[in-house]
Amino acid sequence: MILVTGGAGFIGANFVLGWLSSSEAEGVINLDKLTYAGNLANLQSLKVDPRHMLVHGDIGDKGLVSNLLSKYRPRAIVNFAAESHVDRSIHGPAEFIQTNIIGTFNLLECAREYWASLRDSEKEEFRFHHVSTDEVYGSLAPSDPAFKESNPYEPNSPYSASKAASDHLVRAWFHTYGFPVVTTNCSNNYGPYHFPEKLIPLVILNALNGKPLPIYGDGQQIRDWLFVGDHCSAIREVLAKGRLGETYNIGGWNEKANLEVVNAICAILDELKPRADGKSYADQITFVKDRPGHDRRYAIDASKIEEELGWRPAETFDTGIRKTVQWYLDNPDWVQGVVTGSYRDWLEKQYHN
Ligand code: NAD
Ligand code: DAU
Question: How many CB atoms lie within 10 A of CB 319?
Answer without folding.
Answer: 11
